Amino acid sequence: MLEAYAPILILAVVSAVAAAGMVIGSHFLGPIRPTPAKRGVYESGITPLGNARERFSVKFYMVAILFIVFDLETVFLIPWAVTFRALGVSGFVEMLIFIGVLLVGFVYVWKKGALQWE
Amino acid sequence: MIDIPFFLFVVFAVVAIGGGIGMVSSRNPVASLLFLVVTFFSLAGIYVLLNAQFIAAVQVIVYAGAIMVLFLFVIMLLNLGSDYHADIRRFGWIVAGFVAAGIIGGILSSGLTQPGLLAGGGGGALVDASVRDVGVVGAVAFPLFRDFAVPFEVTSLLLLVAAIGAVLLAKRRV
Fold first, then answer.
1. With contact defined as beta carbons under 8 Å apart, do A60 and A112 qualify?
2. Of A46, A96, B81, B115, which has fewest CB within 10 angstroms of its CB?
3. Which of B53, B77, B174 comes nearest A58 by C-beta?
4. Is B111 on the interface with A (CB under 8 A)?
5. Is the dihedral of CA A6, A10, A11, A13 positive or negative?
């Protein structure tokens, strides 16, 4: 059973080694001749204005938490979909109630305009 | 010949503990968050070793992905993490150190102990039997939808509260 996961483990190890190797290798092998223009922050070719580390709008937070809510819904939907036939009608009704409750939340969020970017 | 699952368990466990220590000892919240991601990935590895592959996938998707994004947004909102370059450089070395410690510890401990010394109680056998009967996802799905149907429905209320609470808190005009 566990042997089936060996390729994933090998992939993870190889990608970690490759990523670290690229960073370390370019640090030691590449010529480093810094100029003020090269060391500067790249902002689409424009001279950067001020600091990039500013406070983010709360709108991003709202999108993130709504994403998590509906992401968790998917986590429950996957085991339900895999065992759909074996669970029969009772499983279908259970999931209808679950989705129905979340649909109330979705309608509320939509009506309040939380999905609008303004 | 070393015991591969036991060796991997020691590696993942040491890296998880290292991530936890790094998380509470970093002064910068962004570095703390990166350490926590390392811990979550190691826990996903341990779940695979426990024959709970579905839980491992959920751990990576929900915790290491979504919840960490949320934490990062909170840090950005509060504007705490402005000077983290030194912490992140240190972060790489600490994680590499714990990976090395885990590999050495794993080789040593699996060489020194007899195989099967640390085998768990009856729980592991129960999980293995259930996985064999109904599959990896079924072992989660059948208890969830048959024995724990009411807690499952209550979870939907919890998610509803989370969605409504986010809108109430973050929206200027509700």
1. no
2. A46
3. B77
4. no
5. positive
C-beta separation of B64 from B47 below 8 A: no
A38: in domain: yes
What is the identity of the amino acid at A104? Answer: V
Q: Testing the interface with B: which of A3, A69, A73, A99 to mutate, by most B Cβ within 10 A? A: A69
Look at the pTM and tell me if it is higher than 0.90.
no
Q: Which domain holds residue A70?
A: 2-112
Out of A82, A97, A109, name the one closest to residue B137 (CB). Answer: A82
CB contact under 8 A, A80 and B145: yes
Report the alpha-carbon angle B87-A59-A114, nearest 5: 150
B110-119 tens-digit pLDDT: 777 665 555 5
Protein fold of B1-121: Four Helix Bundle (Hemerythrin (Met), subunit A) (1.20.120)
Q: Quick check: A90 pLDDT over 60?
A: yes
Are B47 and B56 in contact by the 8 Å Cβ rule? The answer is yes
